[in-house]
Amino acid sequence: MSSDFLQPVRDFLGAATTDAWVQAAVADLPTLLQDHANCEKKAASTALNMLFRYNDREQLQTELTQLAREELLHYEQVRELMAKRGISYRPLSASRYANGMRQHVRTYEPAHLVDLMIIGAFVEARSCERFAAVAEYLDDELKRFYSFLLRSEARHFTHYLGLAQCYSSEPIAERVAFFREVEAELISTPDVEMRFHSGVPQIQVQSQTRAQA
């Protein structure tokens, strides 16, 4: 799937989603949908937490209020799709992605806020890129839904990046480049499980190794 508005997202990311991840995601739609729902809920929660923590930042209040509302709507829509398909909720562990990014966040302000905004931009950009990567392999209903979400995630990416620059006292290019490398490594290296933001599923890596032996 290609569209002009997706190119800035792809240019922003340091690595493309692997075919192995796409294959694993398509093969396990219940896990994909459930973790997608969890990600939407977490994204809303993260935005709300920042609304309370940075109550004096006017632009942040305006943009993250809208973002949180949209993420909750997406969460509701994914849950409706799950119910329609008879997919019930079950406990699902989080991937290493978020913690892998957050462990590098600076502890002093405004650097702490700036890093959180940059991470938010990468999370939303990766979500957008993965919707596009997987959509063409899904049934018509899911393909329409994931294609519909693309513009929202691309818009959220630009909001977060704009907020990072807004609240930084210096250019953010160096920090963006740093987190680009961190994010690309998390996405490109083997992972023990398939999640919406996981790396290359280990089962796929093992299968490829046996095939080449």
UniProtKB/TrEMBL annotation:
Database matches in SUPFAM superfamilies: Ferritin-like
InterPro entries named among the record's database cross-references: Ferritin-like, Ferritin-like_SF, tRNA-Hydrxlase_MiaE
Q: Gene3D superfamilies, per this entry?
A: 1.20.1260.10
Alphabetized PANTHER family for the sequence: TRNA 2-(METHYLSULFANYL)-N(6)-ISOPENTENYLADENOSINE(37) HYDROXYLASE, TRNA-(MS[2]IO[6]A)-HYDROXYLASE
The protein depicted here goes by the name: tRNA-(Ms[2]io[6]A)-hydroxylase
